[in-house]
Amino acid sequence: EAGVAQSPRYKIIEKRQSVAFWCNPISGHATLYWYQQILGQGPKLLIQFQNNGVVDDSQLPKDRFSAERLKGVDSTLKIQPAKLEDSAVYLCASSFGTGQETQYFGPGTRLLVL
Amino acid sequence: ELKVEQNPLFLSMQEGKNYTIYCNYSTTSDRLYWYRQDPGKSLESLFVLLSNGAVKQEGRLMASLDTKARLSTLHITAAVHDLSATYFCAVVPWAGNMLTFGGGTRLMVKP
Fold first, then answer.
1. Which residues on chain A are in Cβ contact (under 8 Å) with B44?
2. How confident is the model at residue A101 (pLDDT cuts 50, 70, 90)?
3. Which of A51, B12, B26, B86 is packed most tightly, with the most Cβ within 10 A?
Protein backbone atom coordinates (compact mmCIF):
# COMPACT_ATOMS: atom_id res chain seq x y z
CA GLU A 1 0.00 0.00 0.00
CA ALA A 2 1.38 3.42 -0.96
CA GLY A 3 2.08 5.77 1.91
CA VAL A 4 1.38 9.45 2.36
CA ALA A 5 3.02 11.46 -0.41
CA GLN A 6 4.27 15.01 -0.01
CA SER A 7 5.97 17.50 -2.27
CA PRO A 8 8.26 19.28 -2.50
CA ARG A 9 10.67 17.62 -0.10
CA TYR A 10 12.73 20.78 0.38
CA LYS A 11 12.03 24.46 -0.14
CA ILE A 12 14.13 27.55 0.46
CA ILE A 13 12.45 30.96 0.22
CA GLU A 14 13.04 34.47 1.43
CA LYS A 15 10.87 36.06 4.10
CA ARG A 16 7.69 37.66 2.83
CA GLN A 17 7.51 35.22 -0.09
CA SER A 18 4.73 32.69 -0.39
CA VAL A 19 5.02 28.91 -0.52
CA ALA A 20 2.68 25.97 -0.97
CA PHE A 21 2.96 22.34 0.03
CA TRP A 22 1.03 19.40 -1.38
CA CYS A 23 -0.11 16.18 0.26
CA ASN A 24 -1.75 13.03 -1.07
CA PRO A 25 -3.00 10.78 1.74
CA ILE A 26 -3.23 7.01 1.83
CA SER A 27 -6.06 5.83 -0.40
CA GLY A 28 -9.32 5.55 1.49
CA HIS A 29 -8.22 7.65 4.45
CA ALA A 30 -10.90 10.19 5.26
CA THR A 31 -8.91 12.24 7.74
CA LEU A 32 -5.92 14.37 6.84
CA TYR A 33 -3.67 16.37 9.15
CA TRP A 34 -1.00 19.01 8.71
CA TYR A 35 1.68 19.35 11.38
CA GLN A 36 4.54 21.76 11.89
CA GLN A 37 7.71 20.33 13.42
CA ILE A 38 10.29 22.86 14.49
CA LEU A 39 13.82 21.49 14.89
CA GLY A 40 14.23 19.67 18.19
CA GLN A 41 10.51 19.66 19.02
CA GLY A 42 7.57 17.35 18.59
CA PRO A 43 5.09 17.93 15.77
CA LYS A 44 2.32 20.47 16.41
CA LEU A 45 -1.06 20.04 14.75
CA LEU A 46 -2.00 22.92 12.45
CA ILE A 47 -5.21 21.67 10.88
CA GLN A 48 -7.31 18.52 10.64
CA PHE A 49 -9.71 17.68 7.80
CA GLN A 50 -12.44 15.06 7.76
CA ASN A 51 -13.10 14.49 4.07
CA ASN A 52 -13.19 18.08 2.77
CA GLY A 53 -14.39 19.71 5.99
CA VAL A 54 -12.24 21.28 8.69
CA VAL A 55 -12.44 19.50 12.05
CA ASP A 56 -9.88 21.58 13.96
CA ASP A 57 -7.80 24.56 12.90
CA SER A 58 -7.38 26.16 16.32
CA GLN A 59 -3.58 26.18 16.08
CA LEU A 60 -3.35 27.43 12.49
CA PRO A 61 -2.02 31.04 12.25
CA LYS A 62 -4.80 32.14 9.99
CA ASP A 63 -3.31 35.52 9.19
CA ARG A 64 -0.68 33.81 7.04
CA PHE A 65 -1.48 30.11 6.79
CA SER A 66 -4.28 28.55 4.78
CA ALA A 67 -5.15 25.01 3.83
CA GLU A 68 -7.71 23.33 1.67
CA ARG A 69 -8.87 19.85 0.73
CA LEU A 70 -11.36 20.58 -2.00
CA LYS A 71 -12.27 17.07 -3.20
CA GLY A 72 -11.66 15.27 0.05
CA VAL A 73 -8.43 13.68 -1.14
CA ASP A 74 -5.34 15.84 -1.84
CA SER A 75 -4.58 18.85 0.28
CA THR A 76 -2.46 21.98 0.00
CA LEU A 77 -1.02 24.11 2.78
CA LYS A 78 0.01 27.65 1.94
CA ILE A 79 2.03 30.25 3.79
CA GLN A 80 1.73 33.84 2.66
CA PRO A 81 3.81 35.81 3.57
CA ALA A 82 6.45 33.60 5.18
CA LYS A 83 8.37 34.63 8.30
CA LEU A 84 11.73 33.42 9.55
CA GLU A 85 10.03 31.50 12.37
CA ASP A 86 8.11 29.42 9.82
CA SER A 87 11.29 27.46 9.11
CA ALA A 88 10.33 23.91 10.02
CA VAL A 89 9.35 20.55 8.61
CA TYR A 90 5.72 20.39 7.53
CA LEU A 91 4.32 16.91 7.95
CA CYS A 92 1.14 15.58 6.44
CA ALA A 93 -0.56 12.58 8.02
CA SER A 94 -3.70 10.61 7.32
CA SER A 95 -5.92 8.14 9.12
CA PHE A 96 -8.91 6.03 8.18
CA GLY A 97 -11.19 7.89 10.60
CA THR A 98 -10.96 10.15 13.60
CA GLY A 99 -11.44 7.53 16.29
CA GLN A 100 -8.72 5.32 17.60
CA GLU A 101 -6.99 4.89 14.27
CA THR A 102 -3.27 5.43 13.98
CA GLN A 103 -2.06 8.41 11.98
CA TYR A 104 0.41 7.62 9.20
CA PHE A 105 2.92 10.31 8.36
CA GLY A 106 4.42 11.40 5.07
CA PRO A 107 8.12 12.22 4.58
CA GLY A 108 7.57 15.93 5.20
CA THR A 109 8.58 19.15 3.47
CA ARG A 110 11.59 20.89 4.97
CA LEU A 111 11.14 24.67 4.70
CA LEU A 112 13.91 27.18 5.24
CA VAL A 113 12.97 30.86 5.31
CA LEU A 114 15.90 33.25 4.85
CA GLU B 1 -4.42 22.84 27.50
CA LEU B 2 -2.99 19.35 27.28
CA LYS B 3 0.70 19.13 28.12
CA VAL B 4 2.82 16.10 27.31
CA GLU B 5 6.25 15.80 28.86
CA GLN B 6 8.89 13.22 28.13
CA ASN B 7 12.02 12.42 30.03
CA PRO B 8 14.79 12.13 29.57
CA LEU B 9 15.16 14.44 26.58
CA PHE B 10 18.43 12.80 25.63
CA LEU B 11 19.67 9.33 26.45
CA SER B 12 23.03 7.83 25.62
CA MET B 13 23.36 4.17 26.50
CA GLN B 14 25.58 1.20 25.84
CA GLU B 15 24.48 -1.74 23.78
CA GLY B 16 23.03 -4.50 25.89
CA LYS B 17 21.71 -2.20 28.61
CA ASN B 18 18.11 -1.63 29.66
CA TYR B 19 16.41 1.70 30.09
CA THR B 20 12.98 3.34 30.34
CA ILE B 21 11.60 6.48 28.73
CA TYR B 22 8.75 8.21 30.55
CA CYS B 23 5.81 10.12 29.15
CA ASN B 24 3.58 12.17 31.47
CA TYR B 25 0.47 13.99 30.35
CA SER B 26 -1.77 16.50 32.05
CA THR B 27 -5.37 15.55 31.24
CA THR B 28 -7.61 12.52 31.09
CA SER B 29 -6.87 10.31 28.14
CA ASP B 30 -7.20 6.69 27.11
CA ARG B 31 -5.34 6.95 23.83
CA LEU B 32 -1.59 7.15 23.72
CA TYR B 33 0.76 6.56 20.80
CA TRP B 34 4.49 6.00 20.52
CA TYR B 35 6.33 7.00 17.36
CA ARG B 36 9.92 6.65 16.21
CA GLN B 37 11.70 9.23 14.06
CA ASP B 38 15.09 8.68 12.43
CA PRO B 39 17.16 11.76 11.54
CA GLY B 40 15.73 13.52 8.49
CA LYS B 41 12.90 11.00 8.25
CA SER B 42 9.23 11.01 9.05
CA LEU B 43 7.48 9.41 12.00
CA GLU B 44 6.90 5.68 12.19
CA SER B 45 4.12 4.34 14.38
CA LEU B 46 5.33 1.91 17.07
CA PHE B 47 2.48 1.36 19.52
CA VAL B 48 -1.09 2.37 20.20
CA LEU B 49 -2.25 2.05 23.82
CA LEU B 50 -5.99 2.34 24.27
CA SER B 51 -6.82 1.36 27.84
CA ASN B 52 -5.53 1.48 31.38
CA GLY B 53 -2.99 -1.23 31.97
CA ALA B 54 -2.39 -1.80 28.26
CA VAL B 55 0.99 -3.32 27.48
CA LYS B 56 2.41 -3.90 24.03
CA GLN B 57 5.73 -5.36 22.99
CA GLU B 58 7.62 -5.45 19.73
CA GLY B 59 11.13 -6.83 19.73
CA ARG B 60 13.23 -5.02 22.32
CA LEU B 61 10.61 -2.34 22.97
CA MET B 62 7.71 -2.58 25.40
CA ALA B 63 5.18 0.17 26.04
CA SER B 64 2.68 0.45 28.87
CA LEU B 65 -0.05 2.84 29.91
CA ASP B 66 -1.31 3.85 33.37
CA THR B 67 -4.22 6.21 32.79
CA LYS B 68 -4.72 6.86 36.49
CA ALA B 69 -1.16 8.11 36.88
CA ARG B 70 -1.32 9.72 33.41
CA LEU B 71 1.92 7.97 32.60
CA SER B 72 3.24 5.82 29.80
CA THR B 73 6.60 4.11 29.69
CA LEU B 74 8.67 2.81 26.81
CA HIS B 75 11.09 0.18 28.06
CA ILE B 76 14.14 -0.78 26.05
CA THR B 77 15.63 -4.21 26.70
CA ALA B 78 19.21 -5.08 25.72
CA ALA B 79 19.59 -2.05 23.47
CA VAL B 80 21.18 -2.36 20.04
CA HIS B 81 22.58 0.37 17.80
CA ASP B 82 19.62 0.12 15.39
CA LEU B 83 17.36 1.52 18.10
CA SER B 84 19.12 4.89 17.91
CA ALA B 85 16.41 7.41 16.99
CA THR B 86 14.11 9.99 18.54
CA TYR B 87 11.04 8.56 20.26
CA PHE B 88 7.87 10.58 20.68
CA CYS B 89 4.79 9.88 22.72
CA ALA B 90 1.53 11.52 21.68
CA VAL B 91 -1.78 11.76 23.50
CA VAL B 92 -5.38 12.35 22.49
CA PRO B 93 -7.48 13.88 25.30
CA TRP B 94 -10.58 12.00 26.37
CA ALA B 95 -12.90 14.70 25.06
CA GLY B 96 -11.14 15.52 21.83
CA ASN B 97 -9.40 14.33 18.69
CA MET B 98 -6.24 16.45 18.60
CA LEU B 99 -2.99 14.51 18.91
CA THR B 100 -0.51 16.35 21.14
CA PHE B 101 3.11 15.28 21.02
CA GLY B 102 5.76 15.31 23.70
CA GLY B 103 9.10 16.93 23.02
CA GLY B 104 10.78 13.65 22.15
CA THR B 105 13.58 11.56 23.62
CA ARG B 106 16.68 11.33 21.53
CA LEU B 107 18.21 7.89 22.07
CA MET B 108 21.78 7.09 21.12
CA VAL B 109 22.98 3.51 21.57
CA LYS B 110 26.73 3.14 21.53
CA PRO B 111 28.48 -0.09 20.50
1. 105
2. confident
3. B86
Which residue in chain B has the smallest CA separation from A41?
B103
Whether A96 contacts chain B with CB within 8 A: no
Reply yes or no on whether the pLDDT at A20 is more than 80.
Answer: yes
Q: Which of B4, B43, B49, B92 to mutate to test the interface with A (most CBs of A within 10 A)?
A: B43
Rounded to a whole number of angstroms, the distance from the CA of A66 to the nearest CA of chain B is 18
Concatenated DSSP letters of A21-39? EEEE--TT--EEEEEEE-T
Q: How many CB atoms lie within 10 A of CB A85?
A: 10
Q: How confident is the model at residue A68 (pLDDT cuts 50, 70, 90)?
A: very high
The number of CA neighbours under 13 Å toward the Cβ of A102 is 13
Are B52 and B44 within 8 A, CB to CB? no
Q: Which residues of A touch B35 (CB under 8 A)?
A: 105
Answer whether A91 touches B (CB < 8 Å).
yes
Q: Are B85 and B38 in contact (CB under 8 A)?
A: yes
Q: For residue B91, list its beta bridge partners.
A: B32, B100
The distance of A81 to chain B (nearest Cα, Å) reads 26
User: Cα–Cα distance between A91 and A32 in angstroms, integer?
Assistant: 11
